[in-house]
Amino acid sequence: MAAVGSPELLIVMSASATGEQVDEVVSRLAEAGADAHVSPGKDATVIGAIGERDLLAALPLEGFPGVEQVLPILKPYKLVSRELTPDSTVIDVNGRRIGDGYFGLIAGPCAVEHREQTLETARVVAAAGGTMLRGGAYKPRTSPYAFQGLGEEALAILAEARAETGLPIVTELMDPRHVEAVLDATDVIQVGARNMQNFTLLAEAGRAGKPVLLKRGISASVEELLMAAEYVVKEGNARVLLCERGIRTFERSTRFTLDIGAIPVLKLETHLPVIVDPSHAAGRRELVPPLARAAVAAGADGIIVEVHPEPEHALSDASQQIPAAEFEAFAAEIRALASLMGRTIG
Amino acid sequence: MAAVGSPELLIVMSASATGEQVDEVVSRLAEAGADAHVSPGKDATVIGAIGERDLLAALPLEGFPGVEQVLPILKPYKLVSRELTPDSTVIDVNGRRIGDGYFGLIAGPCAVEHREQTLETARVVAAAGGTMLRGGAYKPRTSPYAFQGLGEEALAILAEARAETGLPIVTELMDPRHVEAVLDATDVIQVGARNMQNFTLLAEAGRAGKPVLLKRGISASVEELLMAAEYVVKEGNARVLLCERGIRTFERSTRFTLDIGAIPVLKLETHLPVIVDPSHAAGRRELVPPLARAAVAAGADGIIVEVHPEPEHALSDASQQIPAAEFEAFAAEIRALASLMGRTIG
Amino acid sequence: MAAVGSPELLIVMSASATGEQVDEVVSRLAEAGADAHVSPGKDATVIGAIGERDLLAALPLEGFPGVEQVLPILKPYKLVSRELTPDSTVIDVNGRRIGDGYFGLIAGPCAVEHREQTLETARVVAAAGGTMLRGGAYKPRTSPYAFQGLGEEALAILAEARAETGLPIVTELMDPRHVEAVLDATDVIQVGARNMQNFTLLAEAGRAGKPVLLKRGISASVEELLMAAEYVVKEGNARVLLCERGIRTFERSTRFTLDIGAIPVLKLETHLPVIVDPSHAAGRRELVPPLARAAVAAGADGIIVEVHPEPEHALSDASQQIPAAEFEAFAAEIRALASLMGRTIG
Amino acid sequence: MAAVGSPELLIVMSASATGEQVDEVVSRLAEAGADAHVSPGKDATVIGAIGERDLLAALPLEGFPGVEQVLPILKPYKLVSRELTPDSTVIDVNGRRIGDGYFGLIAGPCAVEHREQTLETARVVAAAGGTMLRGGAYKPRTSPYAFQGLGEEALAILAEARAETGLPIVTELMDPRHVEAVLDATDVIQVGARNMQNFTLLAEAGRAGKPVLLKRGISASVEELLMAAEYVVKEGNARVLLCERGIRTFERSTRFTLDIGAIPVLKLETHLPVIVDPSHAAGRRELVPPLARAAVAAGADGIIVEVHPEPEHALSDASQQIPAAEFEAFAAEIRALASLMGRTIG
Q1: Is C333 exposed, middle or buried (0-12, 13-18, 19+ CB in 10 A)?
Q2: Tens of pLDDT, residues C255-282
Q3: Which class is D9-72 in CATH?
Q4: Contact call for D5 and B69, based on CB within 8 A
């Protein structure tokens, strides 16, 4: 059989599909500018479609009469794929680097609660050689009665922490109407797990011109995470850090199930750096160090952990924040392991 | 033992917890204005906390040293709970009613694609006795390369469909900056599954003064759905329709797993009407009628289904839309079953 | 392009696969007596394999260098598939029928606890027009400290209940060494959810010559359930009742998530009858009636429910058994709905 | 309030529970020899039950009228719990040790396919310093048409591999009727994931007098895994190796989701050694090394990996077996990491 070009899509027609139904699919492909190669058979007819990947992905062929399966041959993402960009991306934030051998150690409180708590944590993170400071100003909370963050007041505190320690800031953007305020205070825009498919927010983050830390939704597949990153990169911003933070499964002995396998899968699929949040997956602070170590050993480009001077008085995620007093020892352990894995803390 | 008031929270201290650790929990409870009743024991000490439910829910006691478990006795939601509001809510939209015996049959295309497709579907829905017309103007799509909806053009088409058929309109709000435009065109604001925990959007929807159709997130628990509704009601808008539309599980023979058990659970827990979207759960049109019937039999207050004049040419969800030509028969079957269940199509 | 026969398998080779790697796959297919049709291309080469379905299914082609995906075109099951046996199977047990319009109402206690409890329940089930009596003699329990069933004593009690009421008996087989004893007492052999992939037990059940009620495992896919049934039918026993009883998901407001969508999917895929166990899915008795009704409306061929004279004193599953006193009303409600769906209680 | 002993169970009665309903629960507790402490209140009455843990666990109080929740304070397992046996168990198999600082590196083919394949792999495992040889004689397969293992012939080949290399053997027991044959050939009895709740098999394994490698079921919770181990230990055999091998979730980019968090949770809960099977979780050989490293870093006491001289010709699990030629480098990497974690390969 002669070379026929490689199909992007295979459409399997059911055994009982009529010739007209096959023709209808073929002419729909033609409308979309795609070539169709039909292999008829006894039990099923297979149509190979060759054309522009984006156009084919958008074509709703499953709905056609007689179509049994539509099998994508190529991945639906382009800009984020390692296939198209083989070299690993290094993200440089004010001289701190993450990706391709540079390991990011991002730490800080779950939420900015008051000035002293934040500055004290920032000093501990800086002293232990951390890469960036995290801290929430706007907090998405399951309950409307829970602490929702200090908002603009928190942004000012974070700016002060940056001024004092030199640590770049990571904070979450929840509302497209906050873009300006958040951009003034932050060096990296975090898009939280609950907003991973808030597509208008992703587009805003993409247009903002600063690196984006994109957290995987608790029920998002690896492919959906990559498609969400594609939304950001499509706006012209290729500086995206992907963050695995645990998925929701039936198991309840941890808060979420850290999908450790997603790390090597993502490293194969994309050129973007992949970091891990062990705190939200663990839900209990004694589980954070083993999960953080596992992330490093599995090949992550960094971790983001919650640290608090007095976790028992924290206003959110109290049970999973590491006490600031223990952070230096934790950082040393991570550094030793990262070094064995051939990584340098950036 | 004398009556001690009924605790909202039980805090179980580990066997090895010290007296100081118990005291610390008790004084934290006192700070929050709560009474503590301590039952010390050999293997575990149990502290019962009595106070304001909202304050206790926000208290991060899991983080305290010596605390093994925090067991909530009462549910975290208030305004939406049937416990506090025993009578079922009826939502009236321009004379169409849903809830407490009134069954809503909401139908229409996944997306508004062009004028004729939408008007034709609206006429079919109206003729078959449908309650409202659904249709997406802004479409959240996994891929940035897929059809994203016609936006304001779609809103104008929906307004025309309403003018012609009298059917109230349901359309999705995706961005808080679209509130005004969407409010002009719609009678019910839909908040989609991906935005169920987009809390700034929920608050906007709550303040908008129109009924809200709130879809359950694909990995949201029933409790989280109720907490999301609590965000809306807290803004003063008690006209919320809860919508079960399938959750993400390991099973792939349907697009999502319709959580049929959530219907009777929600009917017990809340006074709000509960409707079901069988189309998104099914993912294949031949499965929509059995899932729709199951929803009615399980006690739902309505269904919302996708209907399209030519599903095979739909720009989104092509495989799961019911052909408009089959809608009348479908509606008749649903009506017969609703009637057996003691419901009237509103 | 000429007809080339319809492939059972498509093997997608990665863009970087060498000619030798393609040749190796082709020669492995030839060894297995299969024809290979190679469509080379720029981004991927696709190999279509045509041959015996069983042989191809057993071929581990994913392991070959250069292979990116193996896409099965045909389903892996044969004997149970509706494709090969279009007519629905009716299972006749001592004159009681299930399948193809005959609806089975199977009821009885979770476990046989003592003679009076069982006989009393059997009388109630018979009086309400039930089809068969269920009751566990050997109970699989998560805890070794929980009640494990009365064993042979229970089998004798079930035999007595059958003698008195004429109801055929359904009881669970847990151990291949119990086959003889269980066969003497039962009319239908139940294989429980935990043993759905206990393949030696499935083969024993297949050889025993009595109908088999096969429960879906809590994390088994619909396809795996059908493959488990294939194990039974392969031994020459085509009288298999498939039973959906809830799958394990993240949701905890019900004991399991009843996969209501599995019912219409199974009805499309297989000629075997499909029944539903609402009791184990619900976990709470007030949820059993709505789930049972949903099962009927979704097209199930029967239900199997737990009934107990005094649920609060039951030794297992106490919270989900329906009180015997309420069974008649329950049965009447199910009968009315089954009748609307065109089914007769067999 | 005076010390009242520490309750094993808390029973929360609903707000509307009557005094008689409370009394009924209390007298049921008394029947079971337990003390009840009643704390009545406005919204809920809480009953604390103090008595024998096993008896209370078996008491089906959820079924009682008026009972809203039953909250266990203590864990349901005893013999396997670290609470009762604080020192970590070391399992010695012919001089090879696993647990408490000794790391087990178990490797070998998925299935014994023929003599040379097995002996060649055994030599590679021995040369690289492996702890034991794994190899399946009886293979549980989803499809009845797939290779089911060589059975007794395989057992003889494994015995020969042990004689030549001195490596202890791990092989799976699938059927209680095979106990004798398997015991002759193996040093460690494996109970597979599909049989984790095959309780008659667990009891046989417990009575057999050899160490048991117990794999977690794909949808078993950590607690259920521990309860399954309790079944084995209850028969007098405390030499149980627990094995995490991936759970079933919605994510499909790996074959299963390795529950890396289960390792530190199990290390806290039980004194038994915890090992990890990265091969079955990964499903693709390029993912096995990162998952194996993650397991070591998370604190596992060993790993069990699949190795084959020619994976592409393997009769099962072809895509996930490591080529024998790469095993030595893999073992060296694991050894370095285990050493950093303070473990010695036993």
Answers
A1: middle
A2: 999 999 999 999 999 999 999 999 999 9
A3: alpha beta
A4: no
A227 touching B (Cβ < 8 Å): yes
Q: Give which of A75, A224, A227, A253 to mutate to test D binding, by max D Cβ within 10 Å.
A: A253
Helix (H), strand (E) counts: chain A: 11, 16
Tell me how far apart the alpha carbons of residues B140 and D264 are, in angstroms, rounded to a whole number: 39
Buried b / exposed e across C10-45, counting CB within 10 Å, b at 16+? bbbbeeebeeebbebbbebbeeeebebbbbbbebbb
Which residues of chain A make contact with B315, given a CB cutoff of 8 A?
58, 60
Chain B contact set for D248 (CB, 8 A): 250
> Strand A35-39 relative to strand A91-93: parallel, antiparallel, unpaired?
unpaired
Chain C residues with CB under 8 Å of A71 CB are 10, 71
Chain D: give the shortest CA distance to residue A322, in Å: 16
Residues 317-346 of chain B with CB under 8 A from chain C are 336-337, 340
What value, to the nearest 5°, has the Cα angle with vertex A341 and ends A336 and A344?
A: 65
| pLDDT, position D308 | 95
* Helices and strands in chain B: count of H runs, count of E runs: 11, 16
Are C214 and C228 spatial neighbours (Cβ–Cβ below 8 Å)? Answer: yes
Residue D280: name the closest of D253, D247, D251 by CA. D247
Compute the nearest-CA separation of D114 from chain B (Å): 35
**Tens-place pLDDT, residues D95-132:** 999 999 999 999 999 999 999 999 999 999 999 999 99
Q: Is B248 on the interface with D (CB under 8 A)?
A: yes
Domain parsing of chain C, residue ranges: 9-72, 91-345
Interface TM-score (ipTM) > 0.90: yes
User: Hey, what amino acid is at A126?
Assistant: A
Report the gap between the CA of C281 and the closest CA in chain A (Å): 15
Listed by number, the residues of chain B in 180-209 with a beta carbon closer than 8 Å to a beta carbon of chain A are: 194-195, 197-200
| Per-residue pLDDT tens digits for B165-202 | 999 999 999 998 899 999 999 999 999 999 999 999 99
User: What is the three-class DSSP state of A22?
Assistant: helix
Domain D91-345: homologous superfamily in CATH: Aldolase class I (3.20.20.70)
Q: Kindly tell me if the per-residue pLDDT of C69 is higher than 90.
A: no
CA-based nearest residue to A277, from A310, A245, A241 = A245
Q: Which residues of C73-84 are buried (b: 16+ CB within 10 A; e: fewer)?
A: bbbbbbbbbbbe
Checking if the pLDDT of C4 tops 50, the result is no
The string of pLDDT tens digits covering residues C183-232 is 999 999 999 999 999 999 999 999 999 999 999 999 999 999 999 999 99
Structure-derived torsion over alpha carbons of residues A335, A337, A343, A346, reported in degrees to the nearest 10: -20
Closest CA to A40 of D254, C7, B326: C7
